Structures are given as C-alpha cells and as structure tokens.
Amino acid sequence: MKTGYFGKVRSYPKDKGYRFVSIARFNKFWTGDEFEFLAPPAEIIKIEDGDLYTKLYYEKVLNKLNTQEVYNMLGDNAVLLCYEKWSDIKEGKTFCHRRIVAKWFEDNLGIKVEELSN
C-alpha cells in the first residue's frame, strides 16, 4: 500500500499493478475507485490545526473501523489518493488525512505505507 495525490496520478507508473483509490471527500474530476469510508467528514474538513484535525479524524472515522478489514478491502496494491502535495506535507506547510491513514495502518498492522514517488 502507498499514498499519493491527484495532481501526480497521471505520472505514476502504470505497469506496477497499483489500484488508485480516492479517499477524498470531494473528487469532482476523479473517475476511478473511491473508498468513502476514509473520507473526512464535512465538519472537520476546514480545520487547519493538524493536532485537532487528527484527533477528530480518529474519533469520527478511524476509531469506527477495523484496520485489518479496511486493509483487506483496499488490498496491498492500493494507492490512497487525496489533494495535498507531498512536498507541502514534507515541508510542514500542510497536513493530510492520507498520511493519518498511513500511520493508522502502520501503527495497527506493523506495515510501512510510503508516499508513491516516480
């Protein structure tokens, strides 16, 4: 499993057997697979405090799900997509729920979920 963002999806390798899956709340132009269970609820989407957002995302989404069952549904070839640029996340300019989900898998299943790079 990997994470990625919509802005780079066209440049990701197509020959690796990846399953690109949106976990975004809104995905106006996305026509691929969607996994709405991991989308952030509307009431937290505009929260800019990363700690508060993470706390609420766990309370409202992740704590209600079984990590292993979600992983099994997505598959280990899934690439979880949303909108934030990886460079902005790494530089601390923004945070992203796809990385919260990645950490949730890592903490609960002991797997590594890295950002997909070209």
Task: Write a structural description.
- The protein has 118 residues and is of the alpha/beta class.
- It has one domain (2-113).
- It contains four helices and five strands; from the N terminus they run βββααβααβ.
- The protein has helices at residues 50-60, 67-74, 86-90, 97-109; strands spanning 2-5, 19-22, 33-34, 78-82, 114-115.
- The chain starts with a strand and ends with a strand.
Content of β-strand: 5-15%
- The helicity comes to 25-40%
Question: What is the topology, as strand order, of the major beta sheet?
Answer: 3-2-4-1-5
Largest sheet entry: 5 strands, parallel
- Report low-confidence residues grouped into runs of 5 or more: none
**Count of strand segments:** 5
Rg over CA atoms? 13 Å
Question: Average pLDDT, to the nearest integer?
Answer: 91
Distance between the amino and carboxyl termini: 15 Å
Q: What are the secondary-structure elements, in order, as H or E?
A: EEEHHEHHE
Can you lay out the helices and strands and say which pair or pack?
Layout: E1 2-5, E2 19-22, E3 33-34, H1 50-60, H2 67-74, E4 78-82, H3 86-90, H4 97-109, E5 114-115
Parallel strand pairs: 1-4, 1-5, 2-3, 2-4
List key phrases describing it:
5-stranded parallel sheet, 31% helix, alpha/beta, 5 strands, 118 residues, single chain
